[in-house]
Specification:
By secondary structure, the protein is of the alpha/beta class. The protein has three domains: 119 residues, Periplasmic binding protein-like II (D-Maltodextrin-Binding Protein, domain 2, 3-Layer(aba) Sandwich); 100 residues, 3-Layer(aba) Sandwich (D-Maltodextrin-Binding Protein, domain 2); 170 residues, Lysozyme, CATH 1.10.530. The chain has 18 helices and 15 strands. Strands 12-8-11-9-10-15 form a six-stranded mixed β-sheet. The chain has a three-stranded parallel β-sheet with strand order 4-1-5. Helix 13 packs across helix 14. The longest helix has 40 residues.
């Protein structure tokens, strides 16, 4: 009996040793089935669509929430990223099914009934929402949609949300747009080609500044999950790697950071402010544009950031003056103007030059350890409230257990400068700390408008040209009942 036990132990030991030796090789072989072709060609091919959630050309190159994730995923595989921007969501799925793309990332919602597609784990929750043209009777319930001209993007979760509601409201009708962007859709509502549309809340938040006459309606149906798409008949290795990657991004905080960067801006800027800003982009900014670009070349700032700062300060009025004595387009104090060598604060070129150099001077006094864009947001806050109070807010952030080098933590600390409990513990005392928070928030919004305006204007011009030419094939397929 003891000999048998000894043999069994020996056999088990040998099998365990073999398993230890073979399993990694077998796993590596299996793992390489789907990833080897990608590594051999040295790039990950992704099908996407142009849009603020997915992928667009920013001032410093490609950007977008999903683009940032795609780029990081490609890096985790040790390859570069290749992106094909498709016109239609259906094209994204077709390219994935046919093997022309390794994966699809285009604000796609998880749909287990879609043939030939596997999905990654959920990345982000998307809530469909009805928006409508300002001036119409309020659209607050499903019944309010009956009789309206409603649009949605074909093959998207928003169209699926409408179909789900039609079961309970047979009179509901809409039009599905094929090959248009969210900006196109909201432009159609803005110019009275549609009464309403269904978009995601994130998309509305990112685009509403361009369309001040498009009003928020109500959430439509249940939230949906944004996911990446993979071909169902391909090895599962890439999907598995994607899920491991997304889990890691969630655990290390990167996913939350990206969500905050792209979707976390507070909705402070109201329609009136947006409308006023957009109007002045056309009738005031052109006069001062050369000055902002010249100052940008001299200081290294983005001219659009400097222009956004100028609008926040004076609404681009070179003769502006406050009761406290700050004057000019960039609202410089007399001591500041003297310090940076500005003779005439009312001269717009001098004012822009002086404001840009002063902002640079403030920024250079901040710690080099503060990463961008946080360092820029803190410099803007200091431009408004003063460098001493910004340092105090950093100290309060530290006292509260936060990170004084993160704008998110300093932003929460600034309003505490109005509370004796906190301002009594720092060097420079009381300050109206809520004001720089709103100040920076507004500048970021104006800056975002200026970053998008060229791309959006091109899209709108193309839409206008198509409308003027009277295309034979309209961009919408009418869904019964006809409107």
């Amino acid at each position: 009996m003891s000999k048998l036990s000894t043999r069994l132990r020996l056999v088990l030991t040998v099998l365990l040793a073999l398993a230890t030796l073979l399993c990694p090789a077998q796993l590596a072989l299996r793992f390489s089935d789907g990833l080897d072709p990608i590594r051999k060609r040295d790039f990950l091919q992704v099908a996407t669509r142009n849009g603020p959630i997915t992928f667009y050309a920013g001032g410093h190159g490609p950007t977008g929430f999903e683009y940032e994730l795609m780029r990081r995923f490609a890096q985790s595989l040790g390859v570069s990223l290749a992106v094909d921007s498709e016109t239609r969501i259906a094209d994204v799925f077709d390219h994935v099914r046919e093997g022309d793309a390794d994966m699809g990332a285009a604000a796609l919602t998880l749909d287990l009934d879609r043939p030939g597609i596997r999905y990654s784990e959920p990345i982000l929750t998307l809530q469909p929402m009805v928006v409508y043209r300002r001036g119409l009777p309020p659209v607050r319930t499903l019944d309010d949609l009956v009789g309206l001209r409603i649009g949605a993007i074909a093959d998207s979760g928003t169209a699926a949300a409408l179909r789900a509601q039609q079961k309970d409201l047979p009179g509901l009708g809409w039009r599905e747009a094929d090959g248009v962007t969210i900006a196109d859709l909201m432009e159609m509502v803005e110019r009275d080609d549609l009464d309403a549309a269904v978009v995601y809340t994130h998309q509305f938040q990112l685009n509403r500044l361009f369309f001040p006459n498009v009003e928020r309606g109500f959430p439509l149906g249940k939230p949906m999950s944004l996911s990446w798409a993979f071909a169902a008949d391909q090895p599962i290795d890439l999907l598995t790697a994607a899920n491991h990657f997304l889990d890691a991004q969630r655990r290390n905080g990167t996913l939350d950071e990206l969500v905050g960067r792209y979707f976390g801006h507070d909705d402070y800027l109201e329609y009136v402010g947006a409308r006023l800003f957009i109007r002045h982009v056309g009738n005031r900014l052109p006069r001062f544009l050369p000055y902002f670009k010249e100052a940008a070349r001299d200081t290294g700032f983005d001219w659009r950031l400097l222009a956004a700062l100028g609008f926040q300060e004076s609404h681009w009025k070179p003769g502006a003056e406050s009761p406290t004595g700050v004057r000019g387009l960039m609202m410089l104090t007399r001591p500041t103007a003297k310090e940076i060598g500005i003779d005439d604060r009312l001269d717009p070129r001098q004012s822009v030059d002086g404001g840009a150099r002063y902002l640079l001077q403030v920024k250079q006094r901040l710690s080099d350890d503060i990463p961008e864009p946080d360092r820029t947001w803190m410099a803007l806050a200091a431009y408004n409230v003063g460098l001493g109070h910004l340092f105090d807010a950093q100290e309060i952030a530290r006292l509260r257990g936060g990170n004084p080098e993160r704008w998110a933590d300093v932003r929460e600390a600034l309003p505490l400068l109005q509370q004796r409990e906190w301002y009594s513990r720092v060097a420079h005392g009381y300050a109206r700390g809520g004001e720089p928070v709103i100040y920076v928030r507004n500048i970021r919004r104006y800056y975002e408008i200026l970053k998008y305006v060229n791309r959006s204007q091109q899209q709108f011009n193309q839409l206008g040209e198509r409308a003027l030419e009277g295309e034979e094939n309209p961009p919408f397929e009418v869904i019964a009942p006809l409107l």
